[in-house]
Amino acid sequence: MALNLKRKRPQASASASIKRRQVNKPESGLEDGQDTGFEDDAASFGGFSTEQDESVESNEEAGDEDQQDAAGNNNSGLPDDTTNPKKGGKPVKITGSELRSAHEARDLFMSSSFKLQTDALFPNVRPKSSRIPALDRFLFALHSVLSSLSSREIKHPLDAASELQEKGIAVPYPDPPPTKETNWKVGFEKPADVNVVGSWANKCSVKGQDGMKFGVDLTVEMPASLFQEKDYMNNRFFHKRAYYLACIASAVRDEKRGLNVTVHYHSTGGDPRLTTLILLPVRDKSETDFTSLNAEIRIIPTLTTPQPFPWHRLSPLQSNLRFSSEEQAPTPLYNNAILLACTPKPHLLAVRRLKSDVPAFVDALTLLRIWANQRGYGEGSRLCVHGFEGRGAWWSGLLEMLVRGEEQEKGPGRTGKRKPLGKGLSSYQMFRAALDFMAKHNFEQEAVFVKSEAGHRYAAQEYRGQHEAVFVDSSSLVNLLAGVPLSSLDMLKHDAQLTLDLLNNSTATSDTFSETLLKDQRGIPSRFDAFISVDISSAKVDQPLTDQGSKVNAVLISLASVLRHGFGNRTKALAILRPTSTLRPVSESHPPASHVVSIGLIYDTEHAFKLVDHGPAVDDPDTSFTTFWGDKAELRRFKDGSIVQSVVWDVKNFDERAQIPVRIVEYLLDRHFSVPSKAVKTWQSPFDSVLRLPESISSMIQQNTGAAAGFKGALTAFDELVRTLRASEDLPLSILNVHPVSEYLRYTSVFSPLPVQQELSYILPKCARYVPVFEVILEFEKSGRWPDDLRAIQKIKLAFFERIAAALMQTNGFRRASVVVGDGVTTSDIQDQASLEVVTNQGWVFSARIWHDREATLLDRILNERSHISKKARKNDEGQTKERQLALEAREVYLRRFIHGPKHHRAIANMSHRFSAYAATTRLVKRWLSSHWLLHGYVSEEAVEIICASVFLGGRQYGVGPSVPGSKERGFARVVEFLKEWKIEEGLFIPLYAANGTEQSPPDETSKSSAGLHKAGAWRVRTEEDPDGRMWTSHGPDNTVALRVRALARATWDLLQAMESQKLDVKSLFIHPTDDYDLLIKLEKNILPRYYQNVRADPRVWDRSSTYANLQPAEDEALRPGIDPAQLLFDDLQRVYQDSIKIFYDCVGGDTFGAVWDPSVRKPRPFRVLGGFSSIPVQKDEKPKDKGVVTLNDTAIVSEIQRFGAGLIANVVSQSS
Question: What PANTHER family does UniProt report for this protein, alphabetically (predicted)?
């Protein structure tokens, strides 16, 4: 099986612990009628009652039900019934604080339900207080061990490392490591101080993603006597720090000390300079076993206060890596890494002051950290945004800046740009303020200095030019965004804007709380328009690597900068993604280097696919453009006469144009990093291949056809047909409009159309002779000469078709025009059945029908104007009953074909023009549904097109928001994600026909259904023109198929996640598992005219080199437009055996039917006449007491099916027991 269809049990909502409570009218000391000022607020808040409930008894009976989850049962977050039975003979009172809380919940939060949900969320992301004592006991024991450590003799770095190596401890010296010529020594003394710092000490810890452990940061101050004044140079500080850390690791590992923990190294962001020691508990059920807490202890060596190095030597402008006399470049990242050893205590005190000054700070920080973790701005087992690992101080520093304000910059006219916020804000308000800052702040141009009591140590000019982004903490020690690429900050801005749009959209139908805080937003397929995996092991960087700490980090920083510059306005955001750094044994000195990096692109569709990048004019002395683009840059003259440097991307078709951003990545990687294209892996081409016909067939057709192919050629042929019809003077009535209603004419057919000329019937194999037919509707001018009889109208249509056919054949552009009557199934003479089949000389085929609006009036007359007939007469009049049924069916066909069909076509065509990725997304989803045997037979093409439109119009209308997919791959993933989560009982509303950007409210749920529409469909896909949502889903899918679609979507979504690990096989998404079917009906592949469109089409079926070369097709084997024998057989079997078997089939090239027996008819039941299915008596030895009991005669049905499809069916395989 290609897909795993096992269902997963839905997870409980995070708000399931919220309990509803009931309150009565407050009994304060106020007189009757006196206004407390809270009643109006409470009423508008939703839930509080100012009158005592009279139905006390009913409340007592329903007491248990009232304890359900408020978030799931009440939109307001408070109970609908606000009274409570008397408790102990006295009514429960509402206090003033309760009313104030209700008032604040409405005003200080987005909604009362949002507050209740956040309150229920907090306990689930914070450590359990009952599990903390074991950790405290262990910390006391660890403190005793660290405080009693003995000093070590000062030695040469290599000798000291060799001594520890004998104990299995490697010293994590950063590169370049010490050598024999090193003239300084390392030593160890017990820590000057040991402190718990960070979020654990301030009780701000938040549970990480993917089961990540709570972090307990423990600083050990290295005595100042171990350092010399020049140790800030050439990694000497980091070498001594590494040896100090290795000595602690050796002591903690000593079993004699009884700590019973495992010891690991961890290098944040893969930087050996930031290596720390991680202690993990061993489950032994002792008093110090804190395994149940799911926490880890991080030992961080720090410098004492005052620190031993001159402050001015650690300025961002200073160069402290001088391994040769020529190296004088500033080392801002290196200097910042040294300063990090001074920050834990100041950050601890700053957060503690914030906690005391701002009551909601901890909750706001919790919301911000949860939001960030759900989007990959932190640690986790999945890919995370590069630069944000270990940035816990940045999130608290961001809130501190909002509360304290910015430092006033020195200089004339320079003032702080941002004033502090109030300290009494709620957690939600502070959370929104942080989002607003991230969404609107220009990180590239504007430096941020958090307000500091003593002022900042380094001037703003010293940071600018050395760091891409500047955000200096209140202690004036470090830049909290040092090493974070601007591309990652662009991604942060993008996600923050998305969340703000969601919070600001008051009409959003989705659960805002879940979308903001509960849903994992790290899914690669639905997050990025293009996802690229690159092996950078062979990458070369011109700039020095020492400041970044490792070669990989240097490549990533340079790569982010090059790609951001190369894309310009083609992308809204660009993210470098990496897995979180992992733990390693203390026997390994350096972290394992991960050479596979991922790149995520979010397109700006207005610019992403432009063919030309413009540079400076020819007389501009600036050479940066040609230096950056190299040989790709060339001089071009444009229509306005200007001659400028340009980069041109040549494409041959739309698929190649959609790959321009990926080609840019490949070119820039090759030019600037010498990374070959074979090291770059993308998934666009495999997705393109499932929408493309086999090359051998398409080339055969195009070589023998001179007409333009594709959607453009089809529309050109349609325009030519319209011009010919309107120019004809032989018609009795003038043609007002010709309405296209074919998916081939609105860009949403699975395959791009190709014209097939009659002469190709002697060249094309039988399995590749399908000719698509384009449906159009003819609308004539109004006339009173039409008859007032439905049957006569159908005859008049035949006369019109004959006249139109004669007129077309008098022109030179058409090969054949034939009148087609009926479909062989419908026998109604009042229903529209006739059509005109027109074949152009180029090979295009059109099927035209005539729309006469008088038919609707006549059908309504049959359905409605019968009130004068009594019910008894109406019941006994069988003829009239049959006519009414025929009228119902005819009206349904009329509405779908002539009213909704053209409107739907225009709306979808408009969507295809408005959103560049919409048409390809729809084609991909149709291909997916058809390959899983659901399209057309159970899910209509129109329903698919509307559902696909929901991912483009669902968030912010008309694509003005940043969430609109920019590629078919992302659009496909978004549709699959929607289908796996869609609650079909709620239906779906899409403002498909909206003429402008105004808000569209969903139609009334209680609106009456249109006459004649069946209610068999489980889906309700509603639009403004179809308020019932049944026009395109009335005949399916039913509940069985709807659940099947959901299971397939979930399995497909799981497979799509393999893109993150570079293991995705795109074709496996479209391979249908057949193990669940009772019957598999195999068809003869070589005579199926659409077989060449099969996902797994075998070229040997149509390869004539494997047959006799002199065999040619008979002359009478002409092409038959629109004829698909497999589809006709499927329709017949579905109609004949609808009560006993459900059949599935791929309408796009399928060669197998899958059938499932109806389990209800396989059970023995009493025999009755006209039972609705083929039955057989149950053997008496099986049921000796039952007489006249029958069951399904499946053997006979299989035999009948084989006779039905004689010559078309190869064999039938039974898989049921």
Answer: NUCLEOLAR PROTEIN 6 (PTHR17972:SF0), NUCLEOLAR RNA-ASSOCIATED PROTEIN (PTHR17972)
